[in-house]
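Protein in question kept underneath.
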Amino acid sequence: MSLFLNAKPVWVKGEENSLNYRAQFKTVFEADINKSYTLNIAAANVYSLKINGKFVAYGPARAGRGVFRIDRLDVNKNLTNGTNVIVIEVCAYNANSYAMIMQNGFLQAELLENDAPVLWTGEHFTARQNPYYIRKTQRYSFQRPFAESYIYNEVEDDFTTSFENNGDLALYETEAKTLIERNVPYPQYEKIEAEYISSGTLDFFEPETYKRDRSTKPNDKMIGYPMEELDLFQTDDAQKMKFTKGEIADINNIGEKEYIIKKFPHNATGFFRLSVNCEKPTTIYVLYDELLLGDTVDFLRMDCANALKYELCAGEHELQVFTTYTMHYVQLTVLKGKAEIKEFSMIEYKHPPVKKELKFEDEAIQKIADAALETFKQNAVDIFTDCPSRENAGWLCDSFFTARTEFCLKGKAEVEKNYLENFLHEENYIELPEGMLPMCYPADHLDGWFIPNWAMWFVLELYEYKERTNDIEFVERCKTKVYKLLKLLAEYENEDGLLNRLPGWIFIEWSEANDFVRDVSYPSNMIYYAALSATSKLYDDAELLSKAKKLRETIIEKSYNGEFFVDNSRRNDEGVFVNTDNISETCQYYAFFSKVATPEEFPELFERMMNEFGPFRDCEKVWPNVHKSAPFIGNFLRLDILNQYGYKDKVIDNIKGYFLYMAEQTGTLWEKAEPRASCNHGFASHVLYWLV
């Protein structure tokens, strides 16, 4: 069966390259509830589906450049007998991001009745531009395109419910699209409610300076509207508010210059909904974040525009954001007017429930496991993402760990297959050296930025994917990518066969270890050894196996100083490589994780690392010359080594030390040890791999 029978890909004439353009495509039809209905949708960049005015679905699942996945939605439960209205709103950002590829907008949709097409784009849909959203807004973050805000000069019209197919835009048929199946399960769009926490008042003032991150200064490498062209600069707007905590008269009726703070049951991702009645024109700011670090929400904590503005006319408003955001705490702030809050909730966007039962007698471990599961579900919808908030990006290395979690929970590698397959959709990546893999994908890296270490983790994950699934056919499809990468890396080998002065961003982890990467980074070479070894096994390559063994011997000879593995060496004035004094805890973990070192060959170092290091080490007293690890990836490598060699009690003890405070604060697990970044990071769900 063809992916589409009659539908054509269409878009709005003259808007092919427009920034942040949102078109609402509409069709009206008669349904017979005794029949079966499926709505097939492919779109770029993202779509939101409403039937008879009610939200139904969001998508699509992401793919690589020039390839688009099709959603097949069973819409029977959303239809009524008789006349029905379908509206598919599509946003084409036409701006680069880490979350999706910059591609021109289109919609290709087809409604099947008992498997026969009855409505399709190219003939039965009309369209209009969404009249309420503010198009010229700032980027949401450096890694994601535009933030949302809205003006309702009148109560929302009946476009999504009226039986008149009344879009007025001229549409045209675009070039044909390369389409593939979704292959991953759909979210269930669970609804959660927020509870009241606190309230207060606000005044306005002019700050001496404004906090503006790099996303507020677009250029040809980070596309957006220049500051002077913005119709709304919401983070500057919100910084003019000074808040004072205190009880207000009625927390359900927020008056002018008042606010309330609400809290969801856990740090959650999805579409927040606001049902509000305004007696007179009212302006509301929705400020949100994953944490509440003071009396009010710090909407700039993560360098994101976590500030959404509604200008509302008098009347009843049922509001739902278009795309997904992550929040635990929400501050509803009324700048002017008065808002009767009837409901504030969220439609969650996450992986559907898994069947694996997670029951533990230890209360702390149960709390951590629940947080790990929540973290997994929010970062494994269509691909593996680092976080659903600031970036929503498919990062390599992170995916290695999240993939283990998926198979542990489901016994399947559905999301992992999608994620890895996307890298095959593009032969060479824009602005990257030939052979290099993007650090995250699908994405555009117009600045040419990449992490060579993360490309090597692609090989490690592919090896484990093969061990999990025995999908030999897919491994063969990846062969060219793998060997082109190794060919590129080999160009940077020095006279000892060690990688030297790799191009791009050499990334070890978020600690001092990342300051010790020039000229020869031994952790980078340890992963190189692991990648060569994995490739030799994947493709039965004896020559690569021999090269890997020689590299391992060289790393041990050059890096091990009799007590620890040293992090790096530098070429001196005579051209000789000399080891530095830099020693990190993480370098030792790289050595054992990669199998450059084994407990049998390095028993004293192994026992020292397992027993004297970890979450409870006093770094000022115990080995103060060895720099402490960060959560990602040093602490994770440590736990994985402990688990591999049977230190089960220590694994449990370390997990509590590393993660309990995170689970207690947000119900999710974090990117870093401190609340300075994402508090919902996909790789951290790997805790379940050790527990289950």
